[in-house]
Each structure stands twice: as C-alpha cells, then as structure tokens.
From TrEMBL:
GO MF assignments: cholesterol binding; lipid transporter activity
GO cellular component: endomembrane system; plasma membrane
GO annotation terms (biological process): cholesterol homeostasis; cholesterol metabolic process; cholesterol transport; intestinal cholesterol absorption
Gene field: NPC1
Family of the protein in this entry: Belongs to the patched family.
Source organism per UniProt: Scleropages formosus (Asian bonytongue)
Signal sequence interval, chain numbering: 1-27
Chief subcellular location: membrane
Catalytic activity: cholesterol(in) = cholesterol(out)
Protein name: Niemann-Pick disease, type C1
Compartments in which it is found: Endomembrane system
SSD domain sequence ranges: 625-790
Keyword Glycoprotein among UniProt keywords: yes
Length: 1327
C-alpha cells in the first residue's frame, strides 16, 4: 500500500515537471531574431526578422555588449532572442535617453528593462505579439512590421515615477520634455511610452503598440519586471538619484519665510501713530508752557517782546555782571571774532585801494585754473557713474569679465501684430485643440522673418570698412559654425521660409506643419530632431537651444502657443579692451536703430532697444535740455543784474542800476565753477553730467546770496564823516565777511567730507562742489570787492551803468530804504515775531516735521529706468512692452572662483547635482531655490557643466571617444573603427578624478552637439569653464540660470539681495572645513543696483557727516557759541527731514541723483540759516525777540532776494523740460529745497531763536549811533566788543576799573550815550 502511494507521488511529480518544462519551453519562444529589410517608414532603420523558435545563444563576441546593455540576460550560454546587430541597434537608439536619463541610475535601469525585454527577452512570446509581416522575395525573409507590447501598468507607472523629475542641465528643463514629445508637465507614463514606440517619432522603425494591463489578457502575460524607485540603490553599486532628479530623496521642500507684516498699531501704520502721539504731546506741553508764561508775564506787566524765560533765574538770557567769570571759550571766541573782523577790514580796504591789481590777479588765476578744462574728461559710462571701484559688485564684474569675457551687448525687438490672426490648431494624431496667438500666424511669421533677415543683412560704415552683424555677433560654435546667435522663434524653423512652410500630409489631411513643430520645439528646445513626421531640428542655426521663455511673450503659465508677442534678441560681442572692435559694434548698433526707426509694416508693431540706446537717449536728453537750462540761468542772471540796483528816481535809472556789477558777479560765480572743473581736470578726475548740471545751480545760490549781502549792506550804510571809500567798504566787509566765511567754509568742509561716500556720483559732486564754493568765496571777497568799489566810484561820479563814458549832470543823491528791506523791517519781522504768531509757527513746523518723519521710511528706493528717458523716446515704449510681455528676467551666474578642487570626489559632490552629489551642493541649492521662485527670484534650475560632463564621459555613451592610435578626440559623428571609448565599462562605474578628470574635460568643452551626442559642451559651456595651467586645472567656472521677470527697482534689488544670500549660503556649505572655495552671484544689472542695498545708510552717513561739519565750523566761527551751532544744525536737519516728506508726497525715489540733491540742499540750507543766526548772535538788542527781529530785518531781506527770488524764477523754467529726470529730480527737488529753505530760514528759525537763542551778554542798552536812528547788526560787533565782559577781560581790567573806551577806537563811528555823565566810563554809562 505504501509502495502504491509512493508510486502515485512520483507520477504526480513527473507530470508537474513535464508541465513546467513544457511551460518553460513555451516561455522561451521568440518573436524575432536578427535584422532584415529596410524600414519604409524611417529611412536608415531596419525591420527585425520574424522568428518563432527558441532563444539562441549569443556569439561570444557579443557577450560584453549584452552585459553592458542587458546584464539580466548575461547568464549561462547567453540564449536570447536578438543577435549582435540588434544589440548594436538598441545601443544606438538608446544614446539620447542615455545622455539625459542616466544621471538617475534607477530611471535608466527601468527604461533599459523595458527595451531589453522588448528586444532580447527569451520569453518574448509571453508579452509580445507580432501583428503585421512583410515578405522579401529577394532575401527570402519575413520581416516583422508591427507588434503589440503588453506592459504592466504598475511597471509603466513605476518607470515614469522614477524618471519624472530628472533634469537636463544644459537646457534648464526636465529631461522628459526632450523625450516625451511634449512638455514634461503634460507627460505621463502612458503617453511617454506611446511616444517612444510611435513610428512617427523618427526613431522607431516599425509600429509598436503598447497595451497596458496588470492582468493577463488575450492569452498574453504583461511584462511586469521588478522596478527600482529613484530613491533606491542598484545591485551594481549605483546609489539613489540626486535630490534634483528625485523629489523622494529631497524630503519636504523648504517653506519660504512669510513676508514681514507691516508694523502697525491698532491696525494703523505704527510710525504714523507714534508721530501723531508725539506731536499731540508736544503741543500740549508747548502750549501749556506758553500759556503759563503769558499769564506770569501779564502779572509782571512785561512787554510782549520780552523773552519768555527772562524772569527765570536759570535762563540762558540772564544778566551778566562785572563779577561773572568769562570762560576760556568766550575769551577765545571773542579773540577769533576780532581777528576775523580786523583781517577782513584790512583786506577789503586793500582791495579797494588796488582794484586793478586784484582784478588782474584774479583773471590770471581763473585763466590758469580754467585751462585745465583742456584735459577734461566727461564720464558717461554708467558703471563708472554709479558703481564704486571698491564695491563688491564692481570686483565681481571685473572677475567675471576677466575670466569669462564681458557680458554680451544686447539688441532686442518686441513685436506684436495689429492683425486679428489668432487661430485654433487641431492635431491630426488626436488630442485637444490648441489655440495659437496672433503673432504665431504663419503669414505674420513670414513677415517677421523678412524683417529679421533685413536686420541680419544691415551694413554700417566704420572708417573705410563695412560692418555687418556677422562681424560682431556672438557665434558660440565658431569657427566650426559661424552662424550668429539669434534668439527668435523663427530659429525653430532654421530662419528659413522653406522650413516654415514645411508640412506633411495628403489631399485630405495635414499630418504635421509649423504648428506641430512649434509645439514640439517649445517642449524640447534642445532637440536635434523633431520626432514627428517633419523631422526638422529645433536647435538654432547657431548650434544652441532657443528657449521659449526667451523668444515669446504675453503667454499664460507655460502655454507658449498663447503668446501675444514675439521677442527677437541679437547678442553682440562686447569689447571692453578693444576700442576698434567696440566702435564697429557701436556703428552697427547706430545703423540698427536708424533702420528699425524707419521700418514700416502696417501689420507689425515693433518696440526695440539696442545696447547703446539708453546712453544715446540720455545724451540726446541732455542736449535737448540745454535750451531749458540756458533759459533758466538767463532768467536768474537778468534778475540778479536788475535786483542789485537801488533805484530811487527814474532820472538816475541808468546810474543807480548795477547791471554791469551783476554780470561781473555772475561771471565770478561761473569762474569759480570753471576753476573747480579745471583744477580737478588737471588731477585727472573725470566729470559727470550731474556735476555739470547741479554745481552751477549750487554755486549760483551761494554766490548770489553773498553778492546781495555785500551790495545791500553797502546800500543801507552811510559813510561817516571823514571816512573814505576804502575805509567804508573795509568796515562793511569786516562786518559781513565773517558771516560769508561761516557759510562758505561750512559748505566747503561739508562737501569735502561728503567725498568720503562710496558712490562715485556723490563723491565726484562733493569734490567739485566743495572747491567751487570756496573759490567763489575767495573771488567775492577780492575780485568782487574791487569791482564793487569801481562801480561805486562810477555811481558817485554820475556815470551811466555799462556806458560808463557817459556822465549825467551832477545831482544830489539821496539814500532811501529799499521796498523789500522796508517790508521786512517794518511789517514782516514784527508780524512773524508777534506773541500769538510764534506759537502757531512752531506748531505748524513741528507738525510738518512729524509728518515727514512718519513717511521717511516709505520713500521708495531705486530709480525707475523709464525716468531716465525723454518723454518722446522710443526706449520708453520698449520699457513698457518689456514689462507687459516678457516672462523671464536677466541671466544670473553663480561663479565659483579659483581654488575649488574639482578633481576630488568631495569637490565634485559639493558642486554637482547628479547621483552621489550632496543634497546641499551648489546645483542642488539652486534647483531648490528655483522651486521657490516667488521668494528667491531664481526662475529656473541651473545649467551644470559638471553634470553634463559626467554624462558625456560615461563609457556607455558614444560622446567621449578617442582615436586609438593618437589619443586625440574623436567626435561622435565620426565613423571610424579606430575610435574607441575614452573609458572602459569598469571605469564607468565611478566618475573620473584627478588627472583623468582633466584629460577629457578639454575634449568635452570643444565638442559640438550633434544627433549622436547632444551633450557636447562647446556651445553651452566653453566660455563658462576657465582652464588654467595649460589645461591641467580648473580655475573659475559658472553655473547659469535666470531671474524671474523683474519689472521695477524693488524687483531688481530683491533679486540681487536674494542671489547674494544664496551664494553666501552655498559658499558656507562648500567650505565646512575652511576650504578655499568661494561663490558669488553675478548679473549684468548688479553693478547698477548694488548702491540701493546701502543707499539708506549712505544717505544717513553723507548727511550726518555734512551736518557734523556744519556744526564744527559754525561753532568755531560763531565764537564757540555751541548752542547757536546746535540751532543751525537743528533747522538744517528739519529741512532735510522735510525733504524726505516732499519726496514721498511727490513720488521722488531715493537714489544717487536725489542723494546728490540732498547733500546740496544741506549746503544751501546753510545759506538760509547761518546769516540769520550770526546776525542774531552779534546783535545787542535787549531781548531774544528783539534780536531775532533785528536779524530777520537786516539779513532776511538779503537772503530772500539773494537766494529765494533768484532761484525761484529759474526753477520754474525747469518744469518745461522734456526730460522726466529733470522734471522730477531737478524741478521738484530744487523747488522743494528753495521753498523749505526759505520758510525755515525766514519763518521758523527767527521764531526758534526768539525762544531758545543764545543769551546776550548785556541787557538792552540805550545808545545809538550819531545820525542813525536804526542801528543794525553792522555795528553790533563793535558794540559787543565794547560792552561784553570779554572785552574787559581781554584788556586786563574788570568792572569799574576799566578806563573809558570809545567805539572809535575800533575804527567805527562815534557813539553817544545820553544817559552817561561826563567823564564816566563806559561800564558806568551802560549800567
């Protein structure tokens, strides 16, 4: 019984074995074997021979090839369903996928599984079914023309998932965009495999119909081989794919930090709330103090003109008695004042005594200094104007230009059409309808191509030569390919009308035309072959890809077919160190501009710009505004010439006018400017347009103010008995020159210290302005004084102005007060300083200050490039269209400087983005940044030369080959049996390092892309890798990507800031142990926008330094009256802060131009303030109010007529300028400077002095000059010297011990003291 059971068991086992063997034999059934017959669909390809027998052993010489391609079948006797020829065909067909997908081993492993099972699997018959055959009578063979390939859906999805993120570094796109026949975002597992097996892709010789199923169907078992995820390692030791090529490896994507919330309090702007509260608190305290003081004074029955704090025993305005100690500062200040007054008095007298000598010497000096203008150089290079030679961006630009060549010049066109030619394209092979924008109509494209061709053929004349585009254009593959780089959608059609008209179809249907080719090329711009029926290349004629985001505009998302604009760019070589070639490029650009301006086509709207356009338009703008500037200055000159005269009677009109003196004064002002320009031209300092446009305005303001002060002081003065003219003018100069010296020296020192700025425009302006102001002062106290004395002598002899040879009949000249002076003394000054007006003035000005502080941080930083253009400039239209249509910003290069070691695995891993590379490598960080483009402003993954080099050098690829005999490079397109792979399969498992890395790198950089090897690095990387030491080491390199679209200054500034942050982070991660690697970001606009990163601190520094200089100089020249200097600086600070308020209200941004104006406004503000404060300081009127009133009456009128009225008329003319930059940064800012300076100097400052001015030395005395009922500040210094305790201390006496002293001892008039007894000394009389 047991034997029977054992026998049954044996029979069962035998039957099972027989069945298994039978199934195994069936599984080994082939569908084809070998190749026979040429494909009728794809020329050059062959069909496979029909074969239904078992798999056959592969010849021994094919083992290595089988092991390379399909190692899973390399076992036993290598029985497979393919021969060596089929393996070679498979290898050739997989070259393109190999070059782009092998950077992710798991992805390429799964793809190879798909094709190996199809081509050579011993069990083909399980999942492959031949459905169509053809018989060849000549060879007596049957070819397979169509098959069905049953593929597991799970396998297909897993293969796609492993490959979906793989990048194509040289193209800045995903690899599937090049291999799927459509954009990667539209690709999926099904349509990718369908596309690869489609006979219309130009690679598949016969129809392969994939059928996706995970369960057996139609007696077929789907191919469901095991797959590898992109985050898994392979059995051969290959690691997981990199983060860049596999999101599963990356982990969670970094979340950009949230945008900082605006600073608010109770939902309102915090600064506004704070300033409102501060202002209200100030008003309560101030008004409370005023009311308390008023009530107290009412009780004390005090005059309303008594000082508010006079009754306070702690007041600065207290009485000084003989017993008070005089400080060292007071003693030193008094001595300095006396010295200045005496010096200027003697000097003024000398100038009047010897006018011809002084004038002649002045002319000689002016001529000598101005002769330096022959060496004058005007800088128009924007880099030199706006970027400091010591700045980071400047150093980085110089490094980039030195190692990789200067950034090319750009000529760009943005073209739209007036035609309503939008259309719908219906693909023949299925799929949804595709809308095409109007500019993509074929008729429009033909017209644009004609226009583009005309530009290519433009000829410009330079000397005796003819310059064409091909002579200056960027040709990256020269000398192998001399075609110019033209970034145009028409390069998808090889810039050819014939290719544009190319189509495939029959009498009923169009299978493919320019529509289908366009759709393919925008998804695979680096493709060498449209895999549709047309088989036209997408690569441009210059040998590089044409990315759709660079040549199309006005589309949504990545729907390039919806484009509403075409963008054509002609990159032209830049020649910074070759003037001859640069001039040729400039000549061609000028012809380009002329041609496009005159080109007419009713169907096309063209906006354009050339590299030289902005500079040309700025120069044209400057020339067109010359008439406006001349008119502005002419009005100021006419006013000065007429206003200086003091005309009492019409009969003496031509005698009392001072036209010739006014013209002489203007000549002196302009001479100071030319002297400054000449001296610095001798020194080799170049001029800028800002210097030429701004400094005359500044010096005219300072100089004219001084002229009016001198002339009007003389006009108000009366010559004393037995006083000669030279004594009178000497006395007058001694009175007013210290004030002029105070303002001029303050401005000079402030400007010279402003030259410490890092901004070239500000530094140059400060140097020229400081010297011009000081020279102007020297000429005014010398040459102008001499000319004034000559004019006075002419007037006293009744000779006509200008026609000085004509003499009128003698008549008695009577002196009267001018209307403006009378108005200030009798009406304006008393009104402003009324008890009830002063608090209102303080409240108003403090309120304006509070508002300005609240909005200062809201002033926009930057300079809108549109503002630099004239209103009628063609470039304005280009800027508008650029913001409207363009989708991509400027290219940005992440440069790795010399010192990084690329020959070690560690050095490679810190940079590359492929398998085995660090997750925080340079390429990976840039890729991650591109995924957060709204935050980082990095728009695309970078192109990576090192990753493409690793793909190029792989032994599985046909790219890297050398001649066996010589070792020289053998291009993939060369058919020569002596060409062998650079590296063996065993070497290919590891990257090249050391000497091997450098051995093949020069070959890679010289290899031109071709259909057999699309990874050649010549076009993409030859300029991006700097080989050193005779090609034995790598120096500087760059990795290029693009910024997102940047539309305004804020965008540009943020893009640069984020790129630098990213570069610094990369540098840190590449140097964990302090290596020498350093990375910086570079884009062509950084050198211009870097200033805005520090513009706020630069502004604070420059204005702070200027104010400090004003404070120090004012303190010294006011006799060390620190409090007066503080009040001057406080008022100037208020003017500057209010300037920011005006800038915010009037839409004026903060940039180098406005900073120059702010520095200038600091200087002009000194003119508005210093004269008033000095007049107040030397006044000996009884109270602060009276001293402020006296100072305002005597100096206010001169300041008002000298600066305010002079500038106001000239500034209004600037509003007529066509230049936006003139209208905004000159008209608006100049007007604000003058109005704010005048209101603060003539309204607020006197009121401030009446409240908080420096205390006087003695109480009000009852004295007057003989014959003068209105003593003014001209005599105050003499009074101050006589009456102050300092004077007594300086004379070695104190109190009643001092002997009697007369003011005549100082060379002044005789003073009478009605209250003094005969023989009493001065102190007794005054007390």
């Amino acid at each position: 019984m047991r034997r029977i059971k054992n026998t049954d068991a044996l029979i069962c086992i035998f039957v099972f074995v027989i069945s298994a063997v039978s199934y195994w034999v069936e599984a080994q059934h082939c569908v084809w074997y070998g190749e026979c017959g040429n494909s009728t669909s794809v020329p050059g390809k062959k069909y496979n021979c029909n074969y239904t027998g078992p798999p056959l052993p592969l010849p021994e010489d094919g083992h290595d090839l089988l092991l390379e391609l399909c190692p899973g079948f390399a076992y036993g006797n290598d029985s497979v369903c393919c021969d060596i020829q089929q393996l070679q065909t498979l290898k050739g067909n997989l070259q393109l996928p190999l070059q782009f997908l092998s950077r992710c081993p798991a992805c390429f492993h799964n793809l190879m599984n798909l094709f190996c099972e199809l081509t050579c699997s011993p069990r083909q018959s399980q999942f492959l079914s031949a459905t169509s055959f053809s018989y060849n009578n000549v060879t007596n063979t049957t070819s397979v023309e169509a098959v069905q390939y049953y593929i597991g859906q799970t396998f297909a999805n897993a293969m796609y998932n492993a490959c979906m993120d793989v990048q194509a570094p040289s193209s800045n796109v995903k690899a599937l965009s090049l291999l799927c026949g459509k954009d990667a975002k539209d690709c999926n597992a099904t349509n990718w495999i369908q596309y690869m097996f489609n006979i219309n892709n130009g690679q598949t010789p016969f129809s392969i119909t994939p059928i996706f199923t995970d369960v057996p169907m139609a007696n077929m078992t789907p191919m469901t081989n095991a797959t590898r995820g992109c985050n898994e390692s392979l059995a051969d030791g290959s690691g997981p794919c990199s983060c860049q090529d596999c999101k599963l490896v990356c982990g969670p994507m970094p979340v950009p930090p949230p945008l900082p919330l605006p600073w608010t309090i109770l939902g309102m702007d915090a600064m506004a709330v704070i300033m409102w509260i501060s202002y209200v608190v100030f008003l309560l305290i101030f008004i409370g103090g005023v009311l308390v003081t008023w009530c107290y004074r009412k009780r004390a029955i005090m005059s309303e003109y008594g000082p508010i704090l006079d009754s306070n025993t702690h007041s600065l305005n207290r009485h000084i008695t003989d017993q008070d100690e005089v400080t060292c500062c007071e003693t030193l200040g008094q001595a300095f004042e006396v010295c200045l007054r005496n010096y200027f008095s003697v000097w003024g007298s000398f100038c009047v005594h010897h006018p011809l000598v002084i004038v002649l010497c002045s002319l000689v000096l002016v001529t000598a200094c101005s002769s330096g203008l022959v060496y004058m150089r005007v800088t128009t290079d924007p880099v030199e104007l706006w970027s400091s030679p010591r700045s980071q961006a400047r150093h980085e630009k110089e490094y980039f230009d030195m190692h990789f060549g200067p950034f090319f010049r750009t000529e760009q066109l943005i073209i739209t059409t007036t035609l309503d030619s939008a259309s719908i394209y219906s693909p023949y092979f299925g799929g949804p309808d595709v809308p095409f924008g109007a500019p993509l109509d074929k008729g429009v494209l033909h017209q644009v191509l004609d226009f583009q061709t005309d530009i290519e053929n433009l000829e410009a004349s330079y000397g005796n030569e003819t310059v064409k585009l091909k002579d200056i254009c960027l040709a990256p593959l020269a000398p192998y390919n001399n075609n110019c780089t033209i970034l145009s959608v028409l390069n998808y059609y090889q810039n050819s009308h014939e290719v544009l008209d190319h189509w495939k179809g029959d009498d009923f249907f169009t299978y493919a035309d320019y529509h289908s080719h366009f759709l393919y090329c925008v998804s695979a711009p680096a493709s060498l072959n449209d895999t549709g029926p047309l088989h036209d290349p997408c690569l441009g004629t210059f040998g590089g890809p044409v990315f759709p985001w660079l040549v199309l505009g006005g589309y949504d998302a990545t729907n390039y077919n919806n484009a509403t604009a075409l963008v054509i760019t002609f990159p032209v070589n830049n020649y910074h160190n070759d003037t001859e070639k640069l001039n040729k490029a400039l000549a061609w650009e000028a012809e380009f501009i002329r041609f496009v301006k005159n080109y007419t086509n009713p169907n096309l709207t063209i906006s354009f710009s050339a590299e030289r356009s902005i500079e040309d338009e700025i120069n044209r703008e400057s020339n067109s505004d010359v008439s406006t500037i001349i008119l502005s200055y002419a009005i100021m000159f006419i006013y000065i010439s007429l206003a200086l005269g003091h005309i009492n009677r019409c009969r003496r009109l031509l005698v009392d006018s001072k036209i010739s003196l006014g013209v002489a004064g203007i000549f002196i002002v302009l001479s100071s400017v030319t002297c400054s320009l000449g001296i610095f031209s001798y020194a080799g300092v170049p001029l800028t347009l800002i210097v030429i446009e701004v400094i005359p305005f500044l010096v005219l303001a300072v100089g004219v103010d001084n002229i009016f002060i001198i002339v009007q002081t003389y006009q108000r003065d009366e010559r004393m008995l037995q006083e000669e003219l030279h004594q009178q003018i000497g006395r007058i100069l001694g009175d007013v020159a210290p004030s002029m010296f105070l303002s001029s020296l303050s401005e000079t020192v402030a400007f010279f210290l402003g030259a410490l700025s890092n901004m070239p425009a500000v530094r140059t302006f400060s140097l020229f302005a400081g010297l011009a102001v000081f020279i102007d002062f020297l000429l005014q106290i010398s040459c102008f004084i001499s000319l004034l004395s000559l004019d006075i002598k002419r007037q006293e002899s009744n000779r006509l102005d200008i026609l000085c040879c004509v003499k009128l009949q003698e008549s008695q000249e009577s002196r009267t007060e001018g209307f403006l002076f009378r108005f200030f003394r009798q009406t304006y000054a008393p009104f402003i300083l009324k008890e009830w007006v002063r608090p209102l003035v303080v409240a108003l000005f403090v309120g304006i200050l509070s508002f300005s502080i609240a909005v200062t941080n809201k002033v926009e930083i930057g300079l809108d490039q549109k503002l630099s253009m004239p209103d009628d400039s063609y470039v304005l239209d280009y800027f508008t269209k650029m913001s409207q249509y363009l989708h991509t910003g400027p290219p940005v290069y992440f440069v790795v400087k010399d010192g990084h070691n690329y020959q070690t695995v560690e050095g490679q891993n810190s940079v590359c983005g492929g398998v085995g590379c660090n997750n925080n490598s340079l390429v990976q960080q840039l890729y991650t940044a591109s995924q957060m483009s709204n935050y980082t402003r990095i728009g695309f993954p970078p192109s990576s030369w090192i990753d493409d080099y690793f793909d190029w050098v792989k032994p599985e690829s046909t790219c890297c080959r050398v001649y066996n005999s010589s070792g020289a490079f053998c291009n993939a397109s060369v058919v020569d049996k002596s060409c062998i792979h650079c590296r063996t399969l065993e070497q290919g498992k590891a990257r090249p390092t050391g000497a091997e890395f450098m051995k093949f790198l020069p070959m890679f950089l010289s290899d031109n892309p071709n259909p057999k090897c699309g990874k050649g690095g010549h076009a993409a990387y030859s300029s991006g890798v700097d080989l050193t030491q005779n090609n034995t080491d790598v120096g500087g390199t760059y990795f290029m990507t693009y910024h997102t679209i940047l539309k305004n200054s804020t965008d540009f500034i943020e893009a640069m800031k984020m790129a630098r942050i990213l570069a610094d982070n990369i540098t840190q991660t590449m140097n964990p142990e302090g290596n020498a690697s350093h990375v910086f970001a570079y884009s062509v606009f950084y050198v211009f926008y870097e200033q805005y990163l520090t513009i706020a601190t630069d502004t604070a520094f420059n204005l702070g330094v200027s104010l400090s200089a004003v404070f120090v100089v004012t303190t010294v020249l006011l006799g060390f009256e620190i409090w007066s200097a503080i009040l001057v600086c406080l008022t100037i600070t208020m003017i500057l802060v209010n300037m920011f308020g005006v800038m915010w209200l009037w839409g004026i941004s903060l940039n180098a131009v406005s900073l120059v104006n702010l520095v200038m406004s600091c200087g002009i503000s000194v003119e508005f303030c210093s004269h008033i404060v000095r007049a107040f300081s030397v006044s000996t009127a009884g109270s602060r109010v009276q001293r402020a009133q006296e100072a305002l009456a005597y100096m206010g009128s001169s300041v008002f007529s000298g600066i305010t009225l002079t500038k106001f008329g000239g500034i209004l003319i600037l509003a007529l300028s066509k230049s936006q930059i003139f209208q905004i940064f000159y008209f608006r800012m100049y007007l604000a400077i003058v109005l704010l300076g005048a209101t603060h100097g003539l309204i607020f400052l006197p009121v401030l002095l009446s409240y908080a001015g420096q205390s006087k030395y003695l109480d009000q005395g009852n004295y007057s000059r003989s014959g003068d009922s209105n003593p003014g500040p001209l005599d105050s210094i003499a009074r101050r010297q006589l009456l102050s305790p300092r004077s007594r201390r300086n004379r070695g006496c104190c109190g009643s011990n001092c002997p009697a002293l007369q003011l005549s001892d100082f060379g002044g008039p005789t003073w009478q003291f009605p209250n003094a007894k005969a023989g009493a000394n001065v102190s007794t009389a005054l007390l």
